[in-house]
Amino acid sequence: MSQSLLEVRDLAVAFRTYIGEVQAVRGVSFDLNKGETLAIVGESGSGKSVTSKSIMRLLAKNAKIRSGEIRFEGENLAAASERRMQSIRGSEISMIFQDPMTSLNPTMTVGKQIIEVLKKHRKLGGAEALAKAAELLGLVGIPSPEKRVKQYPHQLSGGMRQRVVIAMALACSPKILIADEPTTALDVTIQAQILDLMKRIQEETGTSIILITHDLGVVAESAARVAVMYAGIIVETGTVDELFYEAKHPYTWGLLASMPKLHEKTSELTAIPGTPPDLMFPPVGCPFAARCPHAMEVCVAKMPDYTAHSDTHSAACWLQDPRAQKAAAATGASLGGER
Amino acid sequence: MAEQGKKKPLVQVEGLKRHFQVGGGKTLKAVDDVSFEIYPGETFGLVGESGCGKSTLGRTLIRLYDATDGKVLFDGEDVHGTKSKTELKALTRRIQMIFQDPYASLNQRMNVEDIIAEGMDAHGLAKNRAERTKRVVELLETVGLNAEHAKRFPHEFSGGQRQRIGIARALAVDPDFIIADEPISALDVSIQAQVVNLLQKLQRERGLTYLFIAHDLSMVKHISDRIGVMYLGGMVELATSDDLFEEPLHPYTQALLTAIPIPDPRLERERKRQLLQGDLPSPIDPPSGCRFRTRCPFATEHCKNKAPEWREVRPNHWVACHLYGSESDRAAMKA
Ligand SMILES: Nc1ncnc2c1ncn2[C@@H]1O[C@H](COP(=O)(O)OP(=O)(O)OP(=O)(O)O)[C@@H](O)[C@H]1O
Ligand SMILES: Nc1ncnc2c1ncn2[C@@H]1O[C@H](COP(=O)(O)OP(=O)(O)OP(=O)(O)O)[C@@H](O)[C@H]1O
Ligand SMILES: [Mg+2]
Ligand SMILES: [Mg+2]
């Protein structure tokens, strides 16, 4: 096993709103190893973006990290000063967002924007910085980069803009790149180019990537490991193969089953009935219990612990819990925990 | 749809164009010379890159936009022909639309009952208050909601539930043909399946015909009998869902299919993909000849000089590409 670069432990984040407190992230733990791509998938509102913004400490003003640690090379970022975070952001850890326009300044040429980053973190200036900016644009596959550095964001297509944002994020060779839905706004043919680009850059620079996406196809293509989030909790984590072929959590089963298969004819998709819980009033038990076809009494009453299935694979589900398994065996009941 | 040759089409689109005048005296050809047919009871899927003209085509079919040129026949009737108010009303009752954004497409100030009944009221389909309420409750139940929901407002619903309200509203006037413009794109994977299953169930029960516009090719394949692929305002290929996926002919369709990430890591690792170079050109100043030639790995001088014809190269399989053109076009490609 490679060494972990980032260790998130028991992270909890809440938002204060005028009608109450939203428990957006409720005890999330995971590791990111050197040079790997970890995908985070899950329902809309499950806490993927909040988790990644916590790492960058870019949360909204009404947010509070309630508990937990974010250890980056041993240093707890959850407790770091804002000044310390400023030197980390963009240089050690960078982030790319879904909409490239949110990260670009419309009034500045893209070259100038990259140069700003280089000046700030690498103390490069003048002709050297300009040359480096053009080199970075070339690296992300923008043709005639010397010309493009002089253009403004609105003069570029969506795919080009996302490449510029990636170039900016890579300007200081960060150790971690967090990409929050980097291709969702793009077409599949452009998406394929961008994913290919990220893969190539990772091979060349050894950057670790956290890839947030709702597209399981993108996960299968790009990630080594996956964390599945539901209602502010990681319900299952494993290598891509463990997750796609040996999933243990009923939500993961549901997610996999609800996608149409390109190579099989299915007359009806398997939908997960219902909707996720309101995080203003998170359930005490398993948050998926209300939609789970295998739910038992204990699921509603108590949150399950993680059961490990291998060094890399674990799931938080009572079906897999050794105590529930034992109880079922004793009474001769079936837990139904098979797909 | 093997028997489609004999069936009478419900929708016939002939040489349809919809151009927009944009600044500087320039013309944006959002839809440019598109021809195809949709048969009763089928689902016709429409795919293509963002901005290629799918929504504009859908809107022009039901006269939300006027056609710049060409014709749309609905059940034999010219949609864009001059019509009296009653004729137009009769037509709009038979064709309904479901929109992409379940947040923006419902009036936030109306309760669910009024939203669903709006079309019924306009067409005088309910005799009295009691019948109106009864129909609304039936519709809510049809789409998997219930009577309790009738008096609530859109903001109290989740995305999937709102999309169900949009579907109930479309069904309220008992249409024959529904244009669903990215009806599931804004929804979560687990909710998408609920909505797609509902659309299919309604089709079986009511014999509805769908034009299903989407980005997600695996979902389009799942739901469609036939699929049309658009690129930069034109249709480049049209075939049954199975034929298109098993044997895509147009280089763009081929690239599109290899670009879809497959949710299966083992298949993904083995897969060789052919990446397209470059970006989508601007529809204001599209390339001469074949629109796709600037990104096409097979393009030659001929593609620059002449636009390919729209031809049925196999039974029910249409393509616009010189590689499958007339003998002289194919010869010119080799030269
Ligand atoms: N500024 C905020 N104020 C209040 N609640 C917030 C705020 N930002 C996020 N939330 C809530 O936190 C929860 C998690 O949101 P988050 O953005 O992390 O979801 P996500 O998993 O990234 O979803 P998506 O796939 O839609 O991007 C949601 O319930 C959201 O409504
Ligand atoms: N009312 C309008 N005025 C001017 N241009 C328009 C108008 N409506 C659409 N267009 C342009 O027509 C082209 C086709 O747009 P359309 O919305 O039909 O694309 P689409 O295929 O539906 O894209 P998407 O997948 O992003 O929804 C685009 O270039 C768009 O900018
Ligand atoms: Mg998010
Ligand atoms: Mg559209």
TrEMBL record, chain A:
GO terms for molecular function: ATP binding; ATP hydrolysis activity. GO terms for cellular component: plasma membrane. Pfam families: ABC_tran (PF00005), oligo_HPY (PF08352). The keyword Nucleus does not apply. The keyword Transcription regulation does not apply. Its main location: membrane. Belongs to the ABC transporter superfamily. This is ABC transporter ATP-binding protein. The lineage of its organism: Bacteria, Bacillati, Bacillota, Bacilli, Bacillales.
Automatic annotation (TrEMBL), chain B:
The keyword Transferase does not apply. Pfam families: ABC_tran, oligo_HPY. CDD domains: ABC_NikE_OppD_transporters. One of its GO terms (biological process) is transmembrane transport. The keyword Nucleotide-binding applies. GO terms for molecular function: ATP binding; ATP hydrolysis activity. Keywords: ATP-binding, Nucleotide-binding, Transport. InterPro entries: AAA+_ATPase, ABC_transp_ATP-bind, ABC_transporter-like_ATP-bd, ABC_transporter-like_CS, Oligopep_ABC_C, P-loop_NTPase. Residues 11-257 form the ABC transporter domain. Belongs to the ABC transporter superfamily. PANTHER family: D,D-DIPEPTIDE TRANSPORT ATP-BINDING PROTEIN DDPF-RELATED (PTHR43776:SF7), TRANSPORT ATP-BINDING PROTEIN (PTHR43776). This is ATP-binding cassette domain-containing protein. It comes from Cohnella thailandensis. The lineage of its organism: Bacteria, Bacillati, Bacillota, Bacilli, Bacillales.
